[in-house]
Model the fold of this input.
Amino acid sequence: MALSGSEATNLEEREEEEAFLFRAVRIAAVVALYWFVSITMVFLNNYLLDNRDLDAPLFVTFFQCVVTVGLCWLMQLLSKFCPGLVDFPSVKFDLKTSREVLPLSVVFIGMITFNNLCLKNVGVAFYTVGRSLSTVFNVLLSYVLLKQTTSLQALICCGIILGGFWLGVDQEGLSGSLSWLGVFFGVLASACVSLNAIYTKKVMPAVDGSIWKLSFYNNVNACVLFLPLIFVFGDVGRVANFSRLTDLGFWGMMTLGGVFGFAIGYVTGLQIKFTSPLTHNVSGTAKACAQTVIAVVYNSSSKSLLWWTSNMMVLGGSSAYTWVKGREMQKTTHREPQDSAKEKLLPEEKENPGV
Done:
C-alpha cells in the first residue's frame, strides 16, 4: 500500500528523530564511560601511590606497564578467536621497530613517572593545576623543535593558564598544603606530555599508524627501561620488605590500576571517534573540573575563593585554547581547497582572478 506524501514525510522525520536520539545516547554513554574510567584511574593511582607502608612509585608504574603489555597480548588473542567481537591489531615484537620507538619510550617513561610522582605529592584536588602547563609547553616546544608559530589569541590563553597556575601555587602555599616537590614533578610531567605528543607523530609510521601497536612497543620498552631504575632507587628492596606482599587484595588493586591505565587509551580513542578531537578536549577539561570537586568533597577540604579561581583560570584557559586552535584548523581546512583551485588557473588568470 503506497503512502501519501505527508505520511512519507512524517515517517522520514520520525526515523531522523530516532537516529538523532540514538546518536545522542551513544555519545552520552561514551563520554560518561570516558569520565568514569579517567576519574577512577586518577583516584586509584592516588590510593596506590599514597600507601604509607609502600613508598615505591617507580615499581607501581612499572607494574602497570607490565599489565598493559599482558592485556595487549590478551586482546590480540581475543581478536583472533572472536574477530567479530574484538578488533585489535596483530602485535608481534620486532627489535627494529622497538629501537625506532625507543626515543618516544624514554619520554613516555618520564611522562607517566612524573605524572604519578606529582599525584603522589600534591593529591587529586591540586593535580589539575599542578600539571596544567602541558598546553604552555606544547606552544613553547612546537616553536623550539618544529618552528611552528602560535597566534596571539592562543598565546593569551596560555597566559591565562600560567596565571591560574601561579595563583594556585600561591593559594596552596597559603593553606599550608603546598608540596614544591609535587609542583616540580608536575612541571616536568607537563613538559613530557608535550614532548610525547611531538614524538608520537614522528614515530607513528614505524608502527603503521596503529596507536595500539605504539602502546605495546612503548610499554615493552618501558618495562625494560624501568628494571634498572627500580633497583637503583631502592623500590625492589622496599617491595621485598612490604608487609602485604602476599596479600591478594593488594595485587588485585595493582592489577586494576594497570587495567584502567590500559582502558583509558581505549575510551579516549572511542570518545574521539564518536565526537571529535575538539569535543574530546572540552570533555577532558570538564572532567578535570568534576574530578577536582569530587576530591575536595571526598577529603572534606575547605578551599578559598582564589583557590577555586585558579582552577577556573586553568580550565577556562585550556578550553579557550582548544576552541581557538579548533577555529584555526577550520580556517586552514577551508583555505586549502581555495588554494588548490587557484593552482589550476591559467597564468593570466592567476594575475587577475577577477577576469
